[in-house]
Amino acid sequence: MTANVADPLPRAAAPPVRRGGVPARPVVAVLAPVVAAAVALAVHFALPDGQLAPLSWLDSLPSWRHPYPVAVAAVAVGAILAAVGQAVLPSLRSAVRHAAPLVAGAVGLVIAWEVVTTKLNWLHQPFFPGPDEVFGAMVEDREILLESAWHSLWLLAAGYAVGVTAGLVTGVVVGWFPRVRYWAMPALKFVGPIPATALIPLVMTLWKDSFPCAVALIGFAVWFPMTILTSSGIANVRLAYLDVARTLGAGRFYLIFHVAIPAALPNIFIGLFMGLGASFLTLIVAETVGVQAGLGWYLRWQQGYMEYAKVYATLILSAVFFSTLMTVLFKVRDRVLKWQKGVIKW
């Protein structure tokens, strides 16, 4: 009875501890990328190839110098350095323990990719090359891929800026003025759902240059979600905020730019995210409208020659490219809407 009164709540079992006082599960999580990389290298070098790869520049190199095993070895070395770093610097432990299982999972997916293609030949050439061939194609065409990524970034930034600016202006006007909303909302519901790619014949008749055509397509894809979300946020600002500001003598300009827009920022950022996703989808198609560089242009070019290793290399680079831009927007959102932490789960 004395024990129950002193400690009425059952205590959770302590995590298993290895020698030296380090919990076993974090050690397993931190070392998971090293184990996954070792398995990837063992599969690559120990199992025989069932898929006959086409001739390429990789044939002149020993197998251990191919880009794929070098990249896997680099992952292993980086994971070891991260494990040592988080043991020495406590400030790194949270980030390393969070990222290590994700890295191990990504390496596991690459292992499965190599097994079903290069090793077992369940997915056949030329449509399903293995990672060794894809990484080799990425290294071989690295200069043109980087140049294409730069052109895509420039085109995406121009179209996204046009769409965001137009969507903000339209959304604020539609959300703030009821009479404008009465006439504009039916038109938005009618025009907005049209896919941007369906407007290719129209924009090609308006501009002879391919760059404005692509910018217009991306801008239209971004404009609609930006307008709808911004107008919704402006229209649903709490009346109490506006009444207090009016009581203090605020005019219309102040109410819009210092009360309504800041209060609508959560909705505006949702529109930014939706517009960014729509711009990614439109970019690849827009780059086929006579553009002479870009990831979409390079993808279509290599597909025409059935160079599917280079097609997959472009897809991987596009995924990294788009994911990085989305991460940057998340960071901006986290900084601007810092006050939402603890109120809304991100």
From TrEMBL:
Protein's cellular compartments: Cell membrane
Pfam families xrefs: BPD_transp_1 (PF00528)
Ranges that cross the membrane: 27-47, 67-89, 96-116, 153-178, 190-208, 214-241, 253-274, 280-299, 311-330
UniProt KW keywords: Cell membrane, Membrane, Transmembrane, Transmembrane helix, Transport
Membrane topology: Multi-pass membrane protein
Ranges for domain ABC transmembrane type-1: 149-333
GO biological process, one term: transmembrane transport
Gene3D superfamilies: MetI-like (1.10.3720.10)
Cellular component annotations (GO), alphabetically ordered: plasma membrane
Cross-referenced PANTHER family: ABC TRANSPORTER PERMEASE PROTEIN MJ0413-RELATED, ALKANE SULFONATE ABC TRANSPORTER-RELATED, MEMBRANE SUBUNIT
Family of the protein in this entry: Belongs to the binding-protein-dependent transport system permease family.
Entry protein name: ABC transporter permease
Organism, as annotated: Limnoglobus roseus
